[in-house]
From TrEMBL, chain A:
It comes from the Eukaryota. PP2A consists of a common heterodimeric core enzyme, composed of a 36 kDa catalytic subunit (subunit C) and a 65 kDa constant regulatory subunit (PR65 or subunit A), that associates with a variety of regulatory subunits. Belongs to the phosphatase 2A regulatory subunit B family. Signal peptide: none annotated. GO terms for cellular component: protein phosphatase type 2A complex. This is Serine/threonine-protein phosphatase 2A 55 kDa regulatory subunit B. It comes from Coregonus suidteri. InterPro entries: PP2A_PR55, PP2A_PR55_CS, WD40/YVTN_repeat-like_dom_sf, WD40_repeat_dom_sf, WD40_rpt.
TrEMBL record, chain B:
This is SERTA domain-containing protein. It comes from the Eukaryota. One of its GO terms (cellular component) is nucleus. Residues 159-169 have a biased composition (Polar residues). Residues 1-25, 126-209 are annotated as: Disordered. Residues 139-155, 181-194 have a biased composition (Acidic residues). Residues 38-85 form the SERTA domain. Pfam families: SERTA.
Amino acid sequence: MDEEIDTRKINNSFLRDHNYATEADIISTVEFNPTGELLATGDKGGRVVVFQREQESKNQPHRRGEYNVYSTFQSHEPEFDYLKSLEIEEKINKIRWLPQQNAAYFLLSTNDKTVKLWKISERDKRPEGYNLKEEDGRIRDPTTITALRVPVLQPMDLMVEATPRRVFSNAHTYHINSISVNNDYETYMSTDDLRINLWNLEITNQSFNIVDIKPANMEELTEVITAAEFHPNQCNTFVYSSSKGSIRLCDMRASALCDNHSKFFEEPEDPSNRSFFSEIISSISDVKFSHSGRYLMTRDYLTVKVWDLNMESKPLETYQVHDYLRSKLCSLYENDCIFDKFECVWNGSDSVIMTGSYNNFFRMFDRNTKRDVTLEASRENSKPRAILKPRKVCVGGKRRKDEISVDSLDFSKKILHTAWHPSENIIAVAATNNLYIFQDKIN
Amino acid sequence: MFPKGTKRKFSDSGDEPAVGGEDMNQPSSVAVRMLSSYSLQRQALLDMSLIKLQLCHMLVEPNLCRSVLIANTVRQIQEEMTQDGTWQIMTQALSAANAAAQCSAERLVATEVLCRQTEAAQGEQVPKPFPAVGSEGCPAEEEEEVVVEEEEEGEGGVTMSTVSSQAPTTYLPGTFGMDPCWEEETEEDEDSEECGSGSEEGDSDRLVEDSRTAEQVFGTFEIKNPAPSPDPALEELFSDVDASYYDLDTVLTGIQSVPKMGPYDLLESLSSHGPSPLSSSTSCRSDLNELDHIMEIIVGS
């Protein structure tokens, strides 16, 4: 794949050195908009940066639509919950775009507790020639006004402004892990560890609780919700995944409270692989419907699974992401890496799936050819516009040149968030505080 | 962590595998060693999990999913240990241990030494404020009270609240560290509301601490009815030193050195944050050190 690196530029004045990764710059979510023209990233410091694809120009065909910064804004601020004496992190957990209905763009961004609807709009004209004030804003002395004029719109430099249009707050006791916009484009759902709430995009002071798995006695809590998503085509259907490795599909037409699932997807445990960590590694960190709506993809710690919605007993396909970690689970438990939540994505045609791993590696699986590849998102190991070289991790025994042994993997360099353009082969990969954008090589 | 130099003794107790015992024949000693290694691994995992549960961020709510997964792991280990019978031994030893510890000044000195050593280990750790099991660090449920099942412990063992699915005679520290992480303690003064501790009876062992978080940690190690006199056989057991224990940890965890933190480290950090501990807390701290020490020896050996 041809590689273009689009490293985020830090504009804040307190940062001197671009190489020094402050925690606030760690990217926590990446999402293309429905047309792929825009790419939004959220970070741990509560900021959202939106990139826009350049118009393709005939003069420079090889610079096929690069992404440049379009807008940057502070979406969430750190808050303090006085009642519980706890800080509420401003880290953006998820961003979801709304389909475009007019000239402005809308996206939902959420931290642990509050969802916000942001409007991003362009302004390239401004009115000039007011009667009551000067161009610089000073009020004119009324006695000096002798004639009236009609203000005229004059062109100005393009300005992109982001304004918060709705704030959906105070609906979640636990931490929000997912948001998903419904196909009806009127409602969306927000999911925390124990509950799922349904919102109308226009109404901020109430939401409906549609799933509640909180036990009456919290001592009995053994399972939490880890992710949820609406079906892409059926506005009444959604799925949610759990920390025990199961997925429940619910139909909102069945009842107001969807505690009873319509379908229950779970793979029976393999007794030969049983260990104390079996449950932890079966916890699903991400669930995504295919674009067609026919399949479901789930990511647990070591694998990615594709499920057919019509078959609940076992997944259709299972792909090993980094099975060589199976023997290292105790160490990974000790350093907490076993709790890392990797995401997974489909390509536009649902033929390829992608997910991240450690050491800045990410993996792609072609469902048709059954081939897979491991690539690396790093500045040191690849130059801009160079084709990415496939990587290999060697498990034991002889290590060939270019291979990396399991023990040399850097577990602090994890790729948790990736995104795939809705129709083209362009991917965005977040590696800690850097964003990489890769696209297919053109001949 | 353990005073070195004490020779291991062949254990008289039939429940404990005697590694390196002279009168065991070869094949079974290998099996026994493997079994014991598994037990050690399991114990190490249990300790690690308990520490993870207790380390909550003071300022930010910890991840509920992570806490639930760790708690489930702890429960799973405990279930296994209960089936093995190891759990019974441990809790019985704990009750006797506490009684023994109270009477022996020597042991108190030894644990003071332990405390100083572990301070060095603590220094390597990421400095985080620990409310230990405090509700402050955990997602709270407003107006929710911890429903603690109080188990009367006839032998004076450690009182811990049980998960309803368990048989009444098994004692699980399963709830300490876990429940407070999910719920807010609304009753500070009521002893019976302490997570995992059951009702108090004005024990001399009980720590007097204003920080509720400390109470919850200590409460789990509370002894309700200490046995009157120490058992000489048990004392012999206590003098065993399991030197292999700390090697196991480094082997298991591989890459980095585990800062071996037990509840006594938490106590130290708590006292450094909270108000100055009263004198009774120091003796109880030693008791807790001793308890942990004993627990590790008994189960580990």
